[in-house]
């Protein structure tokens, strides 16, 4: 696909249209991302939540063009600042990484080279996009390390990644990702491996830096607390698809999808009186090779009997319920709202 | 608890303590060179005391490396302590010999974090869960199978899965297999080290509910080690907070979460992300500076003083003892929070402490 044949460029800074990323494997076709669409503006944060294997990381690597040249089958459109990237060449997308878009990974060691100092890696990344001397780039690297809260950055710039603690490595990786002021920053489980006090420091840092650079931020996590702290909009993923999308208020105060209810009910919360019992989702997440027919959530859904047999035969559409809030479920809107108000919400509040 | 021998001594606590740990220490020597000259020690656990009462759940929280797992391993005698004493049902088991300890190994069981590596991939579920019966040699093969299938059912697994291998199961199911194996020994006490942290949220809730059901049905006593403060609050009756090898606060769940006294506990609680978007704007956190110091060279006196916003000179020179400042509420701090008002709601309390943290007296570093 070329830019010319695609539909017109969108108004949003980033827009995904019906993105599909499938992997042919010996066991069958893995449909890791299966028709994902969303928009994101500069200065805004999108949270993507879902359990492991729901397609979150494949999505983020896809946006960065890191599946190109591999065995993945990619279709759909990714528009970044007026440019379509699914059809663009691998070389071209590479020139956009770093400056236009950058990523923070869950495991900082995997994205930092063990044999080079932290400083050298930031300097190299910076000089790819900026025609400056080594000395200038080094000064910039020290600046960035200081900004992300590394103590004595002029000394630590010459440390190797393994000489840093987990929290410092995560900060150094953020410094590296931000060294060229990327306009789109994707953070994939940025704090999952960290202790809460360090996590709090990193979350604050990401918010501060985003405000300063007005970049678009995608935060991917399985932690509903983290998305609630950061996101303007939230996308809930299940089995490679978006099953609910809305503002943070939509998702936390008026969720309409049974899976979202399940996630909320599974989570013990410190901000409420403790409940007697958690309300887990039964069963396990689906395999992306044999996604259940109809609604992918149907084997685990307590309400599947209420959809007149459609749950197992027809894939529900992602439809607007109100004001940009999208839900993928066959239950009628009024019924979903009634279940949330009368059954789920009261159970979560007191017991 | 039929045969409690009253081993007396001033340390032995209230009669209902199933497990009593006193002054427990584990120092790992750090050696250098061919001659393995000792150049220091990691003070992983450095003087920990607590009781666990029959039928209760004690939660053990703290950040990575603070000594939670080591404490669990010491209590289950998987590791020899450097110093201190462990009493189980009133018996001193600290240095009990291997032969004498065998029956006890059944009584205190451990569940591990990683449901993948803790199961032998070459053994069927039947072999894994049934091993304890076979070792005890008390049952026929048919009897073993029946007993194993009963346990599988108890932990929510399909008894038909008797002949399957671990890799055929999901993470949550593997954790259930681990729990089933543990239960086969009919333990009195289970030490669970991060039993749900490797699991997805929805599966985490299933396993938490399972642990609670088993406790109610079988009268089990738990020590649950976790770093997730929300899970610990949900599951525990009492909670101990560890920092750098020491317990800094120990209280029943309600007082610990509603009126935390140790500055570190306050900082931990205020750092937990709250899944409520409306709270984000008015919320201020206690921002701790830096990382946890190395246990190789822990700060002297109060180990938290390098990161504490309330630290005074005395905090650097005199170690605060773990003292009972309210009924059942122990804390090790010279300048504790919430001492007078041990009942008001949590949010207000943490907010007030955050207020202080944001307008601190000069920290002494
Ligand atoms: N066998 C060992 N030899 C040397 N040091 C060890 C050994 N086992 C643990 N330690 C050290 O002891 C300290 C406490 O470790 P422990 O595993 O108990 O921490 P933890 O609280 O369980 O942490 P986490 O939350 O990361 O599991 C750490 O500094 C660790 O590096
Ligand atoms: N290179 C690959 N080849 C085949 N399958 C893959 C590949 N990368 C990811 N997958 C599969 O795609 C699904 C989604 O993975 P991922 O996006 O990593 O999940 P998560 O939501 O946990 O980040 C999983 O089933 C995973 O096994
Ligand atoms: S479509 Fe049916 S099975 Fe799927 S979430 Fe809605 S009610 Fe449940
Ligand atoms: S003893 Fe001092 S340094 Fe330690 S926690 Fe209390 S106030 Fe802070
Ligand atoms: Mg992932
Ligand atoms: Mg541990």
Which regions of chain B are unreliable across 5 or more consecutive residues at pLDDT < 50? Answer: 1-14, 342-348, 361-365
Overall mean pLDDT of chain B: 85
Beta content of chain A: 15-25%
Tally of DSSP β-strands of chain B: 12
Derived structural class of chain B: alpha/beta
Named CATH architecture of the largest domain in chain A: 3-Layer(aba) Sandwich
Total domain modules of chain B: 2
Assembly form of the protein: heterodimer
What percentage of residues of chain B falls in helices of 4 or more residues? Answer: 25-40%
Characterization of the model:
The complex is a heterodimer of chains A (351) and B (365). Helix content of chain A is 35%, strand content 22%. Chain A is built from 13 helices and 12 strands. Chain A has helices at residues 56-63, 90-96, 108-111, 118-129, 134-147, 153-156, 166-178, 196-213, 224-230, 248-253, 258-266, 310-313, 333-349, and strands at residues 14-25, 28-40, 45-49, 73-80, 83-84, 101-104, 184-188, 216-221, 233-238, 241-247, 318-322, 325-328. In chain A, the strands form 2 sheets. Chain A has an 8-stranded mixed beta sheet, with helices on both faces. Chain A has a 4-stranded antiparallel beta sheet with strand order 2-1-4-5, covered by helices on one side. In chain A, strand 4 (73-80) and strand 5 form a beta hairpin. Chain A starts with 13 loop residues before the first strand and ends with a helix. With 365 residues, chain B is α/β, with parallel strands linked by helices. Chain B has an 8-stranded mixed beta sheet, sandwiched between helices. A 4-stranded antiparallel beta sheet of chain B has the order 2-1-4-5. In chain B, a hairpin with a 2-residue loop joins strand 9 (238-243) and strand 10 (246-252). Classes of the chains: A alpha/beta (351), B alpha/beta (365). Chains A and B meet through helix 7, helix 8, helix 9, helix 10 and helix 11 of A and helix 6, helix 7 and helix 9 of B. The structure holds adenosine-5'-triphosphate (ATP), adenosine-5'-diphosphate (ADP), iron/sulfur cluster (SF4) (2 copies) and magnesium ion (2 copies). Residues 263, 302, 304-305, 308, 310-311, 315, 320, 333-335 of chain B line the site of one iron/sulfur cluster (SF4). Chain B: It comes from Planobispora longispora.
